[in-house]
């Protein structure tokens, strides 16, 4: 019995008959067998068509009867070939539809399996307990944040002192230092001799002494001013750190 006869007569395993119908895998296997058989039949017919065409060319006008018979056989083979092409298209469509149906069935089966597993996982879960747990987690996160903020804040010892009073005291100290620096500056003494009635040249030694005294005075004032500016900067930094 040929494969195609076996297929159309419903041949199959005893297990398939016992279940009342073939499984998708069995049906797909049968369809692939049929496609393979028809593909071989196509190759055979194509070979016969080429052979009959060669016979017709060989006889040509020498033996018209033999040439016509060869062409008739070629036409029959071509007709069978067209029928097989249509059959293969139908079987291919049926096989793809069966494969898609089988895939959808497996997908639904697996989704149902996953749904049952999820349901089993959720059986022991209590929504009230979950809410309480999430609330506890939120509270502990808040406590942890408060602890982190407390640790990260720098110590504020000494903030009970009034910053304005400290700045006023600092200014007094700076003014005292400035006054002290000014007292230490020695101005050049007034000459005891009377000035000449007419302008004249000042002695070189006296002029040099006065210039040196003025330069020393200016330098001392500059140093005192610079020290005061440095002290002010240091106190501003100290005040900024204390605040």
TrEMBL record:
InterPro entries: Snf7_fam
One term under GO cellular component: cytosol
Biological process, per Gene Ontology: late endosome to vacuole transport via multivesicular body sorting pathway; protein transport; vesicle budding from membrane
Family annotation (Pfam families): Snf7
Compositionally biased residues, Gly residues: 9-21
Region entry Disordered, spans: 1-25
Keywords: Coiled coil, Cytoplasm, Endosome, Membrane, Protein transport, Transport
UniProt subcellular location: Cytoplasm, Cytosol; Late endosome membrane
Gene3D superfamilies: 6.10.250.1710, ESAT-6-like
Membrane topology designation: Peripheral membrane protein
PANTHER family in the record: CHARGED MULTIVESICULAR BODY PROTEIN, CHARGED MULTIVESICULAR BODY PROTEIN 4C
Family statement: Belongs to the SNF7 family.
Protein name: CHM4C protein
């Amino acid at each position: 019995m040929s494969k195609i006869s076996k297929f159309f007569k419903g041949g199959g395993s005893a297990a398939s008959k016992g279940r009342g119908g073939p499984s998708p895998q069995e049906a797909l296997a049968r369809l692939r067998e049929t496609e393979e058989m028809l593909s071989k039949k196509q190759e055979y017919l194509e070979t016969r068509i080429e052979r009959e065409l060669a016979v017709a060319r060989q006889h040509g006008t020498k033996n018209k009867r033999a040439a016509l018979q060869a062409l008739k056989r070629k036409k029959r083979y071509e007709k069978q070939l067209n029928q097989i092409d249509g059959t293969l298209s139908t079987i291919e469509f049926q096989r793809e539809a069966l494969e898609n149906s089988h895939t959808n069935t497996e997908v639904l089966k697996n989704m149902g399996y996953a749904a049952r597993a999820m349901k089993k996982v959720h059986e022991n879960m209590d929504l009230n307990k979950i809410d309480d747990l999430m609330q506890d987690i939120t509270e502990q996160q808040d406590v942890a944040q408060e602890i982190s903020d407390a640790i990260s804040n720098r110590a504020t010892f000494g903030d009970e002192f009034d910053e304005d009073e400290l700045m006023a005291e600092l200014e007094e100290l700076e003014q005292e230092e400035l006054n002290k620096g000014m007292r230490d500056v020695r101005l050049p003494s007034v000459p005891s001799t009377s000035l000449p009635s007419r302008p004249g040249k000042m002695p070189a030694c006296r002029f040099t002494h006065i210039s040196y005294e003025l330069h020393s005075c200016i330098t001392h004032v500059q140093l005192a001013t610079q020290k005061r500016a440095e002290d002010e900067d240091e106190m501003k930094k100290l005040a900024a750190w204390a605040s």
